[in-house]
Amino acid sequence: MGKLTHFEDGRPRMVDVSDKAATLRVATAEATVLLTPEAVEALQEGGVGKGDPLGVAQLAGIMAAKKTGELIPLCHPLPITGVEVRLWFEPQEARVRVVATVKTKAETGVEMEALTACAVAALTVYDMLKAVSKGLEITGLRLLHKSGGRSGEWRRE
Amino acid sequence: MGKLTHFEDGRPRMVDVSDKAATLRVATAEATVLLTPEAVEALQEGGVGKGDPLGVAQLAGIMAAKKTGELIPLCHPLPITGVEVRLWFEPQEARVRVVATVKTKAETGVEMEALTACAVAALTVYDMLKAVSKGLEITGLRLLHKSGGRSGEWRRE
Amino acid sequence: MGKLTHFEDGRPRMVDVSDKAATLRVATAEATVLLTPEAVEALQEGGVGKGDPLGVAQLAGIMAAKKTGELIPLCHPLPITGVEVRLWFEPQEARVRVVATVKTKAETGVEMEALTACAVAALTVYDMLKAVSKGLEITGLRLLHKSGGRSGEWRRE
Amino acid sequence: MGKLTHFEDGRPRMVDVSDKAATLRVATAEATVLLTPEAVEALQEGGVGKGDPLGVAQLAGIMAAKKTGELIPLCHPLPITGVEVRLWFEPQEARVRVVATVKTKAETGVEMEALTACAVAALTVYDMLKAVSKGLEITGLRLLHKSGGRSGEWRRE
Amino acid sequence: MGKLTHFEDGRPRMVDVSDKAATLRVATAEATVLLTPEAVEALQEGGVGKGDPLGVAQLAGIMAAKKTGELIPLCHPLPITGVEVRLWFEPQEARVRVVATVKTKAETGVEMEALTACAVAALTVYDMLKAVSKGLEITGLRLLHKSGGRSGEWRRE
Amino acid sequence: MGKLTHFEDGRPRMVDVSDKAATLRVATAEATVLLTPEAVEALQEGGVGKGDPLGVAQLAGIMAAKKTGELIPLCHPLPITGVEVRLWFEPQEARVRVVATVKTKAETGVEMEALTACAVAALTVYDMLKAVSKGLEITGLRLLHKSGGRSGEWRRE
């Protein structure tokens, strides 16, 4: 099964990283929630003061990063050393943007942790707006940057 | 905070659904993983026989539907009565499509469960291909259809 | 072991509630975090605007209510139908108060869910202030009110 | 937001501890369950022989220490290297005392793990006695001692 | 895939039980831990007084029953209404026996919950004895009896 | 309580391993599912092509290894660095064999992780076949080999 390291002889496995060194790894990912006009309006009304919806989504993203190893079957459980999740409501573009950065000192990287944080933060935005409009869509969930490890630095162009 | 039912006086809450009837609810969602040429090639080599990557992603999606209440802060824990997740590798379009349908008999719907199943299945595809190519992107994560409950049937047009 | 229904012949068990009817159950609990002067000051500086510490603690409390069955060994897993958690910072009394109300339609009550929500919300307040002052203390974690079920209504006097 | 390290520009985050050294950290916390006369009597009848309620609570506390990172939103997941939880039933004072000590070799401390172990052990005592008396109260949940890390040793006076 | 209801067109799924009635379901399972002479001796020394190893295993089994839906990919999450786990140390036969009974009112049965409770209780016995002897073996993990549901009663002969 | 290191003064504890060195640890375990003739037949019909039942069980075993610390009360949470689970359907012998190998770099070994992976993989085989035949039995769940740590290498003879 050639290039798929998660497979050996056609069987999935959690890749053995015992021989790798535990070094600093950082990954940043992003996602976008496309809003309907009703959702934009609801967020504009509701987005002032404490307890706003983006705050709930941000916390959901941070907590989800810690659950990545439970969700993604072949991911290693990693000792995360830092998580930042940010959300921006851009009413002009009718969207919410999410960016998450995760750090660890481990034998393998945290790309999946950053992507999972973005996915769950975006889903939480969806959850809070779904009574207003079911037509929302999550798009552009992807890696922006990673550093550390044998494959070195990578940046989306 | 007007139309955001998850909020009362600016504070998030798990909406009280005690007065609603437990009825059949169904929701279907979808997502798409956009592949790079290297990822298409790797999947073509690895996608034959048992243990293929889409099988891993499918199971990850089913299991994630059961974790929705843990991931999305204001979601109710629901007694899911059925989950189907399907993935299609479309090499011509350089993509993997995911569709998930979730059912329950409960006081509230399973839109978030169907969306979460799609998101985690798509992330699992990403995970298995990330050693080949980091440039994948998850897009079009959205609700296709729901039925049951006070708001009745909804279908994306 | 007389009055301890969780035990039979000296062995703990999850009490069989199969014969009980699933009816509406409500429980309200409270807790208090006693603050030091440094903690009061830090909360006063930090407690304005979105993302304030009490918002984090509130969400932690809501999510913890859903984890009660995992944490308390002999608790039944319950289909929670509503959760509200509120926190008040009372600088004059140098304390934060927490009150949580949980609802379900089930064969047994949600006292432990309300208490667990308060405990985790209070612990989260502690966590966010521990860099400022380790001398905080959580006190008065107790049930305020419950209704529903064979034992009927109970209210702390 | 001045002294609240869990916040940056008003947004909560999991503080980046990548630059810190992984060293031995120890924390000890305590809690007290205040009993009613009926609860004292029930524990006296039930507290002999194996399977007694305090044994259940002790195990619940040990297992809860491992769940701290899931419960407290901004806590780091830590590789716990040891947990001890002890409970004393003091019928004269009509109370149960809980003391928990947690150890790790990590970049940050285990105060929250020790406090969470005490909280869940105390809640478990409450759970097993609530059929006898709902008037119990958990009090004095606080840190007793910590060592290790940049802030060094701290002991409650 | 003929008789395997968990599969449709070669793909696993969580079988749709929405059309079934929620009725009382009971299942009882058993397992046996075969001991070495060193393990028998250690249990005989350690098995007196509170906190004995079988008490830890019993509680682990009860808690594991609640985690079945997380562990077994295609299992439905079920509202368990009662769990009993018993362990007997039989030094003459050099073994520990485990029997677990689980109840629910649901659309599908609790065989897997009873089996999972036995498996985890037996593994916990192993864990506590493994410093004494690694040669233990878990055997005879199987269903003894089930009742309720369309397939009615079943008893191992 | 003599030789039971999990106990001190009759109370269970998570043994303090802070003083041990984090070194490479490997453990391999096995289990066998004894099949009935109906189960052999169902597996023969269903076992061809992708998505076969053993693939589901294999993934369940890998994911369960990561949950060991949650299931076994006194187990340390470990940073697993590799997991392999293999299943063989042996129709002639009317059985399915499971073998799991787990690796870590930690202060304590991964015997329980390998055993838990085998147990959950075997239970998943049971789950998928239970509609066909309830008479299956899991047997021979035991350690085959371990290396690393103070007690060195051990191999079942």
From TrEMBL, chains A, B, C, D, E, F:
It is an enzyme of class 4 (lyase). Pathway: Cofactor biosynthesis; molybdopterin biosynthesis. It comes from the Bacteria. Substrate binds at L74, C75, H76, M112, E113. The keyword Cell inner membrane does not apply. Keywords: Lyase, Molybdenum cofactor biosynthesis. The active site is at D127. Pfam families: MoaC. Residues 14-149 form the Molybdopterin cofactor biosynthesis C (MoaC) domain. It catalyses: (8S)-3',8-cyclo-7,8-dihydroguanosine 5'-triphosphate = cyclic pyranopterin phosphate + diphosphate. Its EC number is 4.6.1.17. GO terms for biological process: Mo-molybdopterin cofactor biosynthetic process. InterPro entries: MoaC, MoaC_bact/euk, MoaC_sf, MoCo_biosynth_MoaA/MoaC, Mopterin_CF_biosynth-C_dom. NCBIfam families: moaC, PRK09364.1. Homohexamer; trimer of dimers. Belongs to the MoaC family. This is Cyclic pyranopterin monophosphate synthase. It comes from Meiothermus luteus. The lineage of its organism: Bacteria, Thermotogati, Deinococcota, Deinococci, Thermales.
